[in-house]
Every structure is written in structure tokens, then in C-alpha cells.
Amino acid sequence: MSEFHIPPRTEEEEEQLREAGRLLFAGSCDFFFGAQRLDQLPPTDMPEIAFAGRSNVGKSSLVNALTGRKALARASSEPGRTKQLNFFNLAGRLTLVDMPGYGYAKAAKAVKEDWQGLMFDYLRGRPTLKRVILLLDSRIEIKESDRAVMTLLDRAAVTFQIVLTKCDAPRPGALAAKRAQAAELARQHPAAYPDILATSSESGLGIPELRAELATLALSQAQ
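and the corresponding C-alpha cells:
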């Protein structure tokens, strides 16, 4: 069962957070490091937000949409392209981490094991990692690899938040059902943050809300 309790916010507080998120993500954002092994990780001097998900779920597209850049993070139609942990400095206040995709069936078994080993070692050993944004494609069913990663995040004791991607595609009823399914799944995991966000990198749906959510982590670090 999820262990989180979210205190209610007033409409004014929500608006303040959205503005804080807008200002944060309007700042500079630059790639500064790529790590293929645990001993290559950069120093831990800022809070980190990592983006995880199945190959081709839209991690890079979401990072680009959040930061308002067209090609900050590389997006590709070729699953499994991202082969390292990519670190981005957001305005000197947050580090965004684009993680390797998981669940790509055509990848060699040894490569899959190597990258999932790196992922778990990073998750459980990174003191500045504040949250993992776990992306699920709203158009397709939740896969066993997604469930396995949620269990892995529980084991690593890393807070994760489910964010649905490509939400401009499903009809409203189907999207509502997918969101309810994701919320029920989150309730089954102690490391899961209960608030489910629906986003679209194409239409901008949910982008201000996700920026606001991440701004709360930058603000809490500054206090």
C-alpha cells in the first residue's frame, strides 16, 4: 500500500506552484553528463528527478516539452536507442536524468541485464535522487516490465510518480479508465506517490501541472 498522504492545496496555492514551475522550466537547461557505468556518475550537488519508462514511451519528448526545447533530449522512433544515464542541469536548481528504456524485447539479453543492473544501482545509491517519474503509455496496456520496475523501485525505496504519456490519443473515457487503473496500481506500491498525471508532449496537456509538481521539489530543497 502507498504510504503517502497529500495535503489539500487551495486554488491560490495551485496557481502559485504552476507559476513557480513555469519560471523554473523557463530557465537554462543543458546536458552536462552521460554515464554508462556507476563509477562515471557526476557529483551529487543538486536534487535529481529521473525519468524512467519502457523504450519509446516518450521520455525524451516529455523532457523536451517540459523545458520548451525541441531537441534537448534526443527522441527517436528506434526503441532502445538511449544507452546511458543522461544528466541535464535545470537552472542550477534541479538535475533531470533521462534513464535508459527498459522492456525492449529485441535487445541482447546481456545488454538488458547490464542496463537494468545499472538502473537499480543508480536508484538505490543516489542520495540526491528525490523522485522517479515513471512514464506509462496511455494508449497501451500496462506491461509486466512496468510492474517489475515498480517492484524494483519499492526495493530501492525511491519515491516514484506515475505519469501517463501520449494522452492526446485515447478517447476521454479510455483515458479516464487508464488513469484509474494507474491510480489503483500506485496504491499497491509503498514507494508510489499517489497523484497520477496525464500528459501529452504534442498538445501540452498536463505539462504545467508536472512542472508545478517538480517545482515543489526544487522549492523544498531551497528551504
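(Above: one complete record from the training split.) The radius of gyration is 16 Å.
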